[in-house]
Structure to design on (166 residues):
DNA sequence: ATTTCTGGCCTGA
DNA sequence: TCAGGCCAGAAAT
């Protein structure tokens, strides 16, 4: 069950850490990319009214997240690209407060699938909107960091900053 | 302590 | 099917 939301706009989010790129569908933020060599290219396009509003919220939220502060407001996030299982994982992730961490095994248990830790990891990796879906707050069961699709250095940085704020 | 299986579960091909 | 992934726990060094 993975329909593919069509992007109606792609906008950059400038931050001190580089340029993130946000993709919007007709129902909300559908994807967020970390800064890379590719995101330098100007992809800004004219946006329809609801999108510009979402983009304001997303921009502020991303900057807050980079400082380790909890997001005060977020745009609607379009998770329609995920499977049922992935959406359940993502929903659980959004319940983890800033400054706290959960383990892959713990999440699996809360989803009534105590043996699906690895599958949870897979869902995290498939997360289309990091920061908004805080997969960086999920660590390995015995202290390790686990991995991070956007680059492990981001995960470390985000966790450090959130820890400082608390 | 750390390395190496082995089990388990969800995807995408 | 089948391989492989942001895993865990047990067994073997």
């Amino acid at each position: 069950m993975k329909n593919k939301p069509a992007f109606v706009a792609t906008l950059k989010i400038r931050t001190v850490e580089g340029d993130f790129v946000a993709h919007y569908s007709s129902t909300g933020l559908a994807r967020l990319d970390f800064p890379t060599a590719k995101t330098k290219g100007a992809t800004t396009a004219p946006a329809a009214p609801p999108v510009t509003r979402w983009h304001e919220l997303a921009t502020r939220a991303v900057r807050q997240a980079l400082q380790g502060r909890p997001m005060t407001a977020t745009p609607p996030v379009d998770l329609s690209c995920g499977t049922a299982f992935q959406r359940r994982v993502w929903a659980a992730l959004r319940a983890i407060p800033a400054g706290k961490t959960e383990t892959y095994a713990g999440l699996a248990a809360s989803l009534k699938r105590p043996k699906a830790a690895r599958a949870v990891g897979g869902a995290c990796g498939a997360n289309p909107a990091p920061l908004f879906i805080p997969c960086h707050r999920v660590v390995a069961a015995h202290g390790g960091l686990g991995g991070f699709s956007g680059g492990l250095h981001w995960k470390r940085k985000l966790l450090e900053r959130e820890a400082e704020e608390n």
